Amino acid sequence: MAKNLSWLSHLINLGGALTGIILTAVGGVMVLNAALKLYVFQFQGEAYQIVTTQECQYDRNLGTEEPRERTPEEIEQCKAERREEQKMRFRRQKEENMVDGLAMLLVGIPFWIIFDRRRKARK
Q1: Phi and psi dihedrals of 58, rounded to 5?
Q2: Are 51 and 82 in contact (CB under 8 A)?
Q3: Local structure of 62: helix, strand or coil
Q4: What is the DSSP letter of 45?
Q5: Model pTM score
Q6: Rounded to an integer, what distance in angstroms lies between the CA atom of residue 67 and that of residue 83?
Q7: Is 48 exposed, middle or buried (0-12, 13-18, 19+ CB in 10 A)?
Q8: Domain map (residue ranges) of the chain
Q9: What are the average pLDDT values for consecutive 10-residue runs of the chain, which has 123 residues?
């Protein structure tokens, strides 16, 4: 009976090793991608994120009923603030991607090693 199910342990070990390889590969790509964008090429934000004048034209405070039209100086200040917010959001997103990638590496590498050794030991 045990001989008939020996293929199951080989399948489990192979599946575990493949899962570890996939986690390691994806995690490595995520870390590399984020590191290149942030530190090597120093991207400041996504290319499609543009702050328009229409976004900042009116001041919509929660306490007022009617939106107040901003002055040109206030519009420029608002646009600058929005650009800085977008840069911070982009940086934060890439740093979170880096953390996710490192977590995948920390799980994938031991998973890969353990199941690969078990698979080779059973041969």
Answers
A1: -115, 140
A2: yes
A3: coil
A4: S
A5: 0.72
A6: 22
A7: exposed
A8: 22-121
A9: 72 91 96 91 75 78 72 88 89 94 96 89 75
